[in-house]
Amino acid sequence: MHDPKVTYRSVFGIEQDPPQWNSAFKQANYGLPNELVEAFQSAWEKAASLPIPSIKFEKWRWLDFSQIGLGDAQVWTKPAYKLEVEFLPLVDGDTKHSDSIHEGLVISTFGEALRRYPELIVRFLKQNSKHRPEKFQALAEALARDGLFVYVPRGVKVDGVAVAKLHGEMHAGMTTTRTIIWLEPGAELKLVLDMQCKSPATADTLFHLGKTDLLLDEDAKLHVTDVSIFKQEVTTLRYNQARLGRRAKLDWIYAAVATANGKQSLEVNLEGEGAEAEIDGIYFPAEGQKISVDTVQNHLAPHTRSNLLFRGAAIGDGEAIWRGMIYVDPVAQKTDGYQSNQNLMLGERSEIKSIPGLEICADDVSCSHGATVGRIDETELFYLEARGIPRVEAERLIVEGFFAEVIEQIPDEKTRNRLGERLLKKFEAS
After folding, report:
1. Around Cβ 3, how many Cβ atoms within 10 Å?
2. Domain boundaries, the chain
3. C-alpha closest to that of 313 among 256, 392, 240
4. Whose CB has fewer CB within 10 Å in the chain, the N or C terminal residue?
5. pTM of the predicted model, to two decimals?
C-alpha cells in the first residue's frame, strides 16, 4: 500500500516529482471507473498548466497565498471524514439513513459515492465540464476524495430538514474536500451541512482546499446552510458554485468565521428563465486572521432574480475583504438583482474593505447594491450602559443582534447555537 501523502511541489512549479505523484494518484483512484480516473487526470493536468494566483490578479490582490509555505506541504488523499445524517423532525422518533426514507435519495461521503454511485458522479461531471477553473479549483477537482455527495431524484420532496454532519481530523499539510448537491427536476430539499475538522496542534502547515457544487435542475428548490468550522491555525480556500435551471429556487446561507487566513468564493449562475436565488452570509476575522470573500451573481437568462446579503465584522487586528459582482447577460432582460454588504469594525486596528460592482449588458433590468463599513454606534452603547449593562457586554449584544438576521434563518437549532458560540469565542478572545 502506498503512502497516502505526496508533495505537490510540481503543481506550484517548484520542482518535479512525478513518481511520487503517480503513486498517490493510483492509490486515490484504485477501483474507480475509467471515466472518473480520466476526469481527475484531466483536472490535474489543468491545475499544472494554469498560473499560480498572485496579488497581480485582481481577485487575489488582497490575500497573498504565496506566503503560506505550501511548497513543502503534504497532500492527503485518504478519506478522513465520518458522516452522520439525521432528519428534523425525526422520522418515526428515530434517526434513519436517508436511503430508507426517500427512495433514490443519496446522502453520503464523496469518497463513498465515488464507489457506490459512480454513474451519478460521471453524469454530474459531464454536465459541469464547460466551466473554466483556476489553478486551486482544478487542484481540488483532481485530488478531493472526501466530502459530501447529495442527490435528490426527479420529483422527490424530502420531508423536514436533513442535517449532514461531517466530522474529521486534518493532517499536517493540505486536505481537500468535494461537495456535490444535485437536485433533479421538481426535487425539493432543506439541508444543513455542519462540517467540523480537528487538527494537530504541532502541525506547521494546515491548509484546507474545498470545492462545492450545487446543481438545481428545472423547478428544483434547495434551502442549504453551509457552516464549516476549523481551528484558527488552518488556512482555507473554498470554491462554491451554484447552477440554477428554469424556475429553480435557491436559498443559500454561508458562514465563513474560522481559519487563520481564508478566501471564500461564491458564484451563483442563474441559467434558466425564472430562476431565483437568496444568498446570505457572514464572516468574522479576529486577531491575526484575514478573510477574503468574493461573491458573483450571474444572470444568464430572462426573468431571473437574486438577492444577496453578507454581514461581516472584524475585531483586534482582523482584516476582511468583500468583493461582490452582479453580472447581467444581454439576453437576461427583466432581471432583478441586488447585493448588500454591511460591516462592523470592533477594534482600533481592524480593517474591512467592501467593493461592490455591477456589470449590466441588458437594458430592461432592476439592479442595485449597497455597502456600509463603520463602528458600533455610541448612542446604542450609551443606551445599554445606561441600563446597567457593562460596555463589553453591550458590545457583545450589539454584535449578536448584527448577525442575528442571518443566523436565525438556519433551520437547525444546534447548528445555530454552535455558530453563535464560535462567534462569541472570537469576541471574547480579542
Report:
1. 11
2. 5-429
3. 256
4. N
5. 0.90
